[in-house]
Amino acid sequence: MKLGDKVEVIDEAVSGVVTHLKGNYVYIETEDGFELEYTANELVKIDDLLTEKKSENFEITSVLAEKEEKRPKKAQKRTSRRKKSPPMEVDLHIQQLVKHYKRLSNHEILTLQLDTAQRQLRFAIDKRIQRIVFIHGIGEGVLRAELEFLLNRYENLKFYDADYQKYGQGALEVYLFQQK
Hints:
alpha+beta, four-stranded mixed β-sheet, elongated
């Protein structure tokens, strides 16, 4: 494989263009603009498959099945670190942020929570962390509305409700798009 080759992943419905090679690892950029890391034996060059199919009347599925059989059965698939890494969690409950919160007014509490959220978001951007979960709690929804207003000011991210089974209704997950 070389730079610019169009490839597909054997066990996944992922395809892309080779952006760079590092040892046995191949980095591809998908149509959505994500860069993913795979080993060379997990990828199939699309152009080669089409040439084989035309010249020898092979079907792509048979070629993929043949390549899959050659792989050792016990070998585990390597995925990029970013896929496996859990999201950074930021708990914005006031009792998690300060010890003596009963003396604070509602405005001071909200300001402290939003400052913490913004500081942690900037930290994640600087450290190239892709996912953050802001745990805001259920309540009346004031903190959530303010968080959404804060997050809408950034262009290179999207946010949505976090995993309901893990966080319930009181959390937002933020996905940060990485700049090249």
